[in-house]
Specification:
The chain has 262 residues and is an all-alpha fold. It has 2 domains: 1-61 and 96-119 and 186-262, Up-down Bundle (Lipoxygenase-1, domain 5), CATH 1.20.245; 122-180, no CATH class. 52% of the residues lie in helices and 2% in strands. The chain has helices at 3-11, 33-56, 60-64, 67-80, 96-118, 121-125, 145-152, 154-161, 165-179, 200-224, and strands at residues 15-17, 25-27. A hairpin with a 7-residue loop joins strand 1 (15-17) and strand 2.
């Protein structure tokens, strides 16, 4: 069930439910790279989570009686988000399906969603005039010296308005650090220790998950080569790579770490 991802796309008017379409919904904008790639990644994560959970939770009663699981869920709501502890929208944790849905959401947010909004920062904001961090002056009013300056010398007026050189240097440094992968990054579908469990079933499921991510990445590469998809290819031929699972170290604009990595 792609409930969380589907609801977000539908609420934003980017998709409608359609049982005949992949993942159960049809995108209103077909050439929407984040949604197309994201749905593939979401589906792979959910399948992996489902396969893993089914290894250990055979019945809903096992979920309800798991003291550690219930304590973790209680802590997450009441301490991790204490200001929202009484909200009615909190999902339950009383069935196997609840575990699968909730864990899928958590993994998606802390891996793929974060990667999609984080690792594209430097290509866009590494040149400060492209995305200044602040405005030092209000928009000029007509018949004022500032307005006349904007009309006669817009570049000078612009530089007086946006971040100073020192502020820009600080912001570029920060954005570069945030957008860079380390040499020891562990990506989605990878583990630092191959034998992270002695149980063969989850090891097999995890291997399937890793292989599925490789297949998805291959499809992404092919989509980015399709000249019909202007939002991927476009006149300047800058491919959409933010949801490519793998990456090398450095500023790559791609790669999904296992969790939020800053």
């Amino acid at each position: 069930m792609l409930r969380y991802k589907k609801i977000l796309l539908i609420c934003r008017g980017m998709a409608v439910e359609d049982s005949n379409s992949p993942h159960g919904l049809r995108l209103t904008i077909e050439d929407y790279p984040y949604a197309v790639d994201g749905l593939d990644i979401w589906s792979a994560i959910k399948t992996w989570v489902q396969d893993y959970c089914m290894c250990y939770y055979k019945t809903d009663a096992m979920v309800q009686n798991d003291i550690e699981l219930q304590s973790w869920w209680k802590e997450l709501r009441e301490e991790g988000h204490g200001d929202m502890r009484h909200e009615s929208w909190w999902p339950n944790m009383s069935s196997v399906q609840d575990v699968i849905d909730n864990c899928t959401i958590i993994i998606w947010i802390s891996s793929a969603l974060h990667a999609a909004v984080n690792f594209g920062q430097y290509p866009f904001a590494g040149y400060p005039p492209n995305r200044p961090t602040l405005s030092r002056r209000l928009l000029p009013e007509p018949k004022t010296p500032e307005y006349d300056e904007l009309a006669t010398n817009p570049e000078k007026a612009y530089l007086k308005t946006v971040s100073s050189q020192t502020q820009s240097l600080i912001s570029v440094t920060l954005i570069e650090i945030l957008s860079r992968h380390t040499s020891d990054e562990i990506y989605l579908g990878q583990r630092e220790c191959p034998k992270w469990t002695m149980d063969p079933e989850p090891l097999e499921a995890f291997e399937i998950f890793g292989n599925k991510l490789k297949e998805i990445e291959e499809r992404m590469v092919k989509r980015n080569q399709d000249e019909r998809l202007k939002n991927r290819y476009g006149p300047v031929k800058v491919p959409y790579t933010l949801l490519h699972p793998s990456s090398e170290k450095g500023l790559t604009g791609r790669g999904i770490p296992n969790s939020v990595s800053i």
